[in-house]
Amino acid sequence: MRGPALTVDVALIATTPPSSVLLIERAHDPFAGAWALPGGFVEQGERVRDAALRELAEETSVSADELTLLGVYDTPGRDPRGPTVSVTYLGLLARRVPARRGR
Predict the structure, then answer these.
(1) pTM
(2) How far apart are CA 31 and CA 10, in angstroms?
(3) Does position 16 have pLDDT exceeding 90, yes or no?
(4) Cα(6)–Cα(43) distance, rounded to whole angstroms?
(5) Domain 5-93 of CATH type 2.60.40.10
(6) I want to staple 59 with a disulfide (CB 3.0 to 4.6 A). Which of 14, 38, 69, 88 is the partner?
(7) Among 81, 83, 87, CA closest to 53
(8) What pLDDT, on the 0 to 100 scale, is given for residue 36?
(9) pLDDT digits (tens, 9 = 90+) for 63-100
(10) How many CB atoms lie within 10 A of CB 8?
(11) Which is it for strands 5-14 and 68-73: parallel, antiparallel or unpaired?
């Protein structure tokens, strides 16, 4: 029996006024076109925090030095691809990231 998939998300908050949260527009199903926190699947042998930093950089070209565990989300049925556990981190960014549309 295989367990749930393990994913990471990063809630990166810009602390310069006005405060904002960095979001990505999902390019693939499920939920293509929807806004989401940057994140993705943890790779085999990868540490969860390292996966969060990697996904943040891959999806946004933004890096973060400090990440704090925000929560673990495991509601059954939340992902149509199957059982998924998401580890979510909080990061603070002292500068604003310019808005970018599309990929």
Answers:
(1) 0.86
(2) 18
(3) no
(4) 9
(5) no
(6) 38
(7) 87
(8) 97
(9) 887 899 999 999 999 999 999 999 999 999 876 666 66
(10) 25
(11) unpaired
